[in-house]
Amino acid sequence: MFTNYKSQFEKDLEDIKSAGTWKEEKTISGKQGAEIEVEGEKLLNFCGNNYLGLAGSQEMEKAAADGLQKYGFGMASVRFICGTGTVHKDLESEVAKFFGTEDAILYTSCFDANTGLFETILQEGDAIFSDELNHASIIDGVRLCKAERFRFKHSDMHDLEEKLKEFTSRSALPNPPHQGEGITSPSPSSRGGEKGEVAPSSSPLSGGGKVGGRSPRMLIATDGVFSMDGDTAKLKEICNLAEKYGAMVMVDDSHASGVLGAKGRGSVEGLMDRIDILTSTFGKALGGAGGGFTAGRKEIIEVLRQRSRTSLFSNSLPPMIASAALYTLQNYDAKFLKSLKQVRENTNYFRAAMEKFGFKLGGDGQHPITPVMLMEEKLAFDMAQALFNHGIYVRAFTYPVVPKGKARIRVQLSAAHTKEHLDKALAAFSEVGKQYGIIK
């Protein structure tokens, strides 16, 4: 009976509030865009992932409506029974073509793509090396697999190499395994440890560093762009280390797909011949609705089709979302490169003005994510509310989402922002910043 546990849940909720991690949902009336209405207030939106401004666009509405009319509301099935439509196969082919990979598989979200990846391709005796600031979906996916876990310091190539050395020396790893060696999946009930935990060093290695008759696998996993800081992974250096030690490379490029690179292919642009697995989403720049995918080596993708639980036991992506995502990729070069140029101009304009004001900004300047570093948690919350009162919608991020003493307001620029929007936001930041003594 729930009455036996009601007080426990009430305490859980009180603990969340007292820890300062309570999350309030503000309700948007109408469409997502640069201008929104929140709880009766008309605001400029500077906290969405709508980097190319497509989420509330008429083009996306029409593409989704066309898909709805042609393929219906849903497939009412998992993929391998009767849930695969021509739109799903067409989208998978287009994803592979767009990003320059051998194959691709769709998921209902990138979270599902990540949680369905690691336990499918890694087993006890293998090793995964994960950046300490990776997204929660990578962390949760790693927990589900039995591979030994190493968490390396954020973008610290020396620390990553030390951990690669540790595993390879202990496992007596021979030359890198040949592509296409058999991939086995651990028990569906396998569970890993907490973030940053390194599993026990014992592993089922037989003579010559073998795992169940094959060489142990190593996989380096990283975000392409880290969402709280807006900085980009050192992918070239990671690939160099992977090739040196015989490891595979996996990149979650959710915040970079459609946003970074000369052609908008993301942080992986120009490196896909060296990267084995790419996961990403259609829920940010590439449409904004949802859906995710894994792309990469054809053997890995086929194993995911056969064994990935988040694919096998989930309904297929709704056809209208798949149709809109397909439209975005097919028309990206012809129609949306101009949006890529615009969001970059907006980012440069906003950052330059904020730095001139005297604000301390995070990120490396390559990405529309622009953290305004305030350090103090109360200051971040108070300033976000003050900006809300000035018609600017941003959110404060504090511990445990970011480290203690690193509180910030995360500003996200969009191609949908006009110069008038940017100037209004800058004026509000300047006024509020002076009000709180952050700038002079």
From TrEMBL:
Gene3D superfamilies according to UniProt: Aspartate Aminotransferase, domain 1 (3.90.1150.10), Type I PLP-dependent aspartate aminotransferase-like (Major domain) (3.40.640.10)
InterPro entries reported for this sequence: Aminotrans_II_pyridoxalP_BS (IPR001917), Aminotransferase_I/II_large (IPR004839), AON_synthase_class-II (IPR050087), PyrdxlP-dep_Trfase (IPR015424), PyrdxlP-dep_Trfase_major (IPR015421), PyrdxlP-dep_Trfase_small (IPR015422)
Keywords, sorted A to Z: Acyltransferase, Pyridoxal phosphate, Transferase
UniProt keyword Oxidoreductase present: no
Xref: PROSITE patterns: AA_TRANSFER_CLASS_2 (PS00599)
SUPFAM superfamilies (UniProt xref): PLP-dependent transferases
A Pfam entry, by short name: Aminotran_1_2
Cofactor: pyridoxal 5'-phosphate
GO function term, MF aspect, one: acyltransferase activity
Entry similarity comment: Belongs to the class-II pyridoxal-phosphate-dependent aminotransferase family.
Name recorded for this polypeptide: Aminotransferase class I/classII large domain-containing protein
Organism of this sequence: Candidatus Doudnabacteria bacterium RIFCSPHIGHO2_01_FULL_46_14
